Every structure is written in C-alpha cells, then in structure tokens.
Amino acid sequence: MSDVGDIVVKLIGFLAEKYAAASKYIVAGIFSAALIAGVLVYFFGGSLIDPRIDYYLMTKMNAYFEGDEGSFAAAARNVDPKIKNLAVAQLESIRNSLYEEVDAVYPITYSFTKAEIAKLDPNSPLTFPLYLYADLSKHRVSIFLNRRNNTFSVLMCFNHDQKSCRQRTSNLSNEDITETLRSHPLKPGSGGIESETLTYPPNIQLIEISPQHLNWDEGADASVEGYVMVRRAIQGQPK
Amino acid sequence: MKASRLFVLFLLFSSLDCVAAGLDGSVVWSKIGPHLEVANDQVWNVKALPAGRGEPRSFRFYALRFHLGYYQLKLVDVGEFARSKAESIARDQNVDKTLPAVFELGLRTIFKINPFSEKIVAAAPAGFPTSSRNPTNLGLLKIDGVERFKLVSKGPSAVFCLDNPPQGSSGYEYQIPTFFRTSVQSNLIDGCRDEVQTGPRILEDPSRFRVQQFDADSTTVETYRRKIDGREEAVPVYLGIPDTPPNYVKYLRAAFAVDDPGRISDQNKERDVARNAYIIVTTTPAGFWDLQDMFKSPEFYANEHYAPHWAINLPGDDYAALVHVKSLPGEGANTTEIGSVTLRQATVLAVVVRK
Lengths: 239, 355
Description:
The complex is a heterodimer. Chain A folds into two domains: 3-78, no CATH class; 102-232, Jelly Rolls (Sandwich), CATH 2.60.120. Chain A is 43% helix and 30% strand. Chain A has six helices and ten strands. Chain A has a four-stranded antiparallel β-sheet with strand order 1-10-3-6. In chain A, a hairpin with a 2-residue loop joins strand 7 and strand 8. The N and C termini of chain A lie far apart (98 Å). Chain B is α+β, with helices and mostly antiparallel strands. Chain B has one domain. Chain B has seven helices and 19 strands. Chain B has a seven-stranded antiparallel β-sheet with strand order 1-2-3-15-14-16-11, with helices on one face. At the A-B interface, helix 5, strand 5, strand 7, strand 8 and strand 9 of A face helix 2 of B.
C-alpha cells in the first residue's frame, strides 16, 4: 500500500473511532425519516394518488369518446335525453321535498258579523290589511281566497294604490299577484305628499281586502279565508 | 302633388292643435253656466324650468273657474256626512243603511246626495286622509265653527280658510278665502269658522303678507303684467315652491287657486267685485313646480285682466279627482267626473250656488 493509501486508511480509522456515536445517530435519523414517510404514504397516499388516477382515466376516456371512436360517442349522446329526464325527475323530487320553494305563507282569516259591521263607524271601513315580505326580484306571490257563508264580492287593493284595486266576485285560487305588486310599489306617501314618517322597509307589500255588496241571506256571520304564498321564483320564469 | 297634400294636412292638424291648446298655448276656457267656466283636458307645457332639471315637462289637466260672488265654498266631513245621510246613501247604493262602514263615500256620492240645501256645482278633495284604514282628516278640520279634527303641527303646512274678511268688517256678499301657515298663525286659525289643513302653499297670499307672516324679501317674487282698462299694471306674485328636487316629484295633483280679477268698484262688498276661484285636477302626473309654473302664467288665466293671487295644493295621487256639473242649469245625467270619484275621501270641498 502506498503512503497515501496508508494515510487514508488511518484517517478513516481515526474518524470512525472519533465520530462513531454521531454516525449512529445520523443513520438512525435517516431510518426514522424513511419509516415516517412510509407510514404517511400508507395512510394518506390514496389522496395523492387517486386524483391522478381519475385524471388519467378521465383524460383517456375523453380521448376515447371524442377521438377516433366517434360512433361510440354518438351512441353515448343518444342516451343523453334519458339521463336528462332522470335528472329532471330527481331534481323535481328534491324540490318537492323542499316544500316547492315556498319561503312563506301568510294566512288570511278574517271573520265578521252583521252586528259587528253595524257597530263600525263610517270612518272605519271594513278593510282587512295584510302586510308581507316579498322581494319581487326573487319571489313570486300568489293568493288563495275563499268567501264563507256570504256571497259578497271582494275588493282587493295593493300597496295603497287605488289604481291597483280589483273587484272579485268569485273565490281565488293561486292567483299570481307578483306583477300587480311590482307595478304598484308601496309608496312613502299619501295624497301625493311624500314623508319620512310614511316610509316602509324594503320589500314590504300590502294587500287590503274589503268585502263589498254583502248578502246576509245565508246567515249573520261571514268570513274570508285563504293565504298568500311567497315562493322563490324559478330560474327562467319571467321576473 | 303628394307633398302639397301632406302640407295641407299638416296645416290642418296644426290649426286643430292650436285651437285645442289655445292659439298661444293659452288654456281654453268654455262657459258652462253663469260665471262658471271649464277647461277640459288641457295640456300645460312647463315654461320656467331651471337648468339641470332634465327634460321638458308637461301635464294634462281639467279645471273649473267660478266667480265667488255667485258661488260659495263649503266643506264636507265625509264621516259625518255618512252618518247624517245614511238613509239616502243606502237607498242610492242599494245597501243596508245600518252598515255605514260599507258605504261608497267618494266625490260621486257627495255630489249625488248633496248634503246642502243649495245646488251643488262641484266637489273636490279638501283634506288629506290619515290613512286608507283611517280615512279621517289629517289635521285641522273646522266646519261652522265646530272643530271636527285637531290641528297637527307637523301635518300639512297650511290651513285653508274658506272665508276670512278683513278684521272688524262684515257684510261682504262673497267669501274671501285665504290660508294661514300651520306653524305660526294660531290666532288667525282660531278665528276662521270653516277651514281645513292642507298644502303645500304653491303661491303665497300677497294681500296681507304681514299678516301671513312671511318675509317678502326672502320669498321669491316675480312681476306679473296685466291690463286694467288698457293700462298695464304690475302685480307681484310670491312663489311658494322653491327649486328643490322634492318639488319636481310627479304625482296626480289637485289644487285650489284664487285670482286677482281686477274688478274695481266703490262698493267693495258687493258680489260682483269678488275674485274667481279655480279647482284643477291633473290627469297625468305633475310636480309642485309644474303647478306653480301654471298658476303664475298669463296663459293659464287667458284673460288680460286676471292676475295670479294665491294657490294651494289639495290631496292628490289617488285622491286627485273632480266632479262638476256639465252645464248650469241642467238636468239628468249632468255631471263630468275626473279621476277616482268613488274613492273614499276624508274631507270634500264643495262648490254650491250662492243664494
């Protein structure tokens, strides 16, 4: 062995003797790190690898459908309406389970008797007000109204606007009043004078129901019953 | 050939338009009875529009002009009317007379049932309703010296008094209507027998501006030129509507005005020297500024003797309505109805023939 080789061997021997404890720790550290990495991969490797598989498969399938295998892609498109119908049916089912997108129901239950009306002053007209919340950019409002024990007609006015008033001589079933409310917003005034004291919070709507032309042939008491339903407007319906 | 025909047609329609609107844009007044005129479905194009106030403005309206020496103003408390005339109303409307809460109590009913002994000529809204649920007068209403509703200090800005002769004077053969300021004139308000709180004031009453307690220097004054016996005379017009955004907000409007007709006599208590009164109702929305523009303009009066005196706003929007006789004397279906004449009013201003 040459002198140089002798020196190297001596140096290694010297270092091995001097740093034996340190190298032991280094080797142990490397081994521990490898062990931890193995455990992590074992438990969480799926989350790293699976998406890549999905991505891989998706890419391959897209290439398959949109690539040379065009007839197969067309066949896939042919079953599309069925899938679509199924999806619509499922969506409908989900919507029904969510109360058909009804956000609020305001009951109408006003009863009155001839004796009660006779006590009313001329300054207390027979009118029943109903305030409700409906954001007309997002909601549709419909009214159901039944007259009980009397064949009176009903004057319905909206948001304090005389021009909105409608006379009804029959019961109402799901009459959509959204457009009427929209074209007659609740005004912060009366008689053409606006006032801060008459302002309303946004999206408040007022329906006033006035029984008229009462007919007491069927008895001395009567009522008007029903409800106002506020539903979320379905996308695509006219607003 | 075609062009010439078109030109003739153009001339024809232009001339018809001029006749309808008055040759110079003046209001066309038509006589329907003694000292009683109407202006039917006229268009007012606003003349004085400050810069920056947008597009040209106009509105359509009907108006009634009557001589206060021959006609008289009266107030009707609609609630009281329903009680006192329940039987007549029930018969007319074919409803149960014990149920006044279901009566139709609009201008049509007041005009038809007529609670007065004199012939009724016109009916218009007078007082603002508190609300549709509580259609009582918003603010002061006094009839024949009896206070029906109390003054609301933060309510409408004026109290319209049907007759306010100079203090210490009596024996006038006509009414001298005026208005007081709600906030500052309680002594004058107390002294008037028939009055209703309404407003805002469109043209201030200049006749006694010290009494009216407004500062003539701070109020915008314009000069109106009219002719009396061929002589030109300058008449001050005190504007009540400042150039602010709320005064351009458009609603259907009703208003009452009184002119200065330049009737001069030694006997100033005789009926012939009385002023003319006006009730106007718009059928398209207008702002207070627009009404003021009309009331201060010679084209509205369309008579070189007449000058503006004062004007006040009455309940508008849904309540803007007017019923008047088509002709006088007249029988049968003799009424003209403008606006929502069936809508329940709080207080009605009636015009009756003066005995």
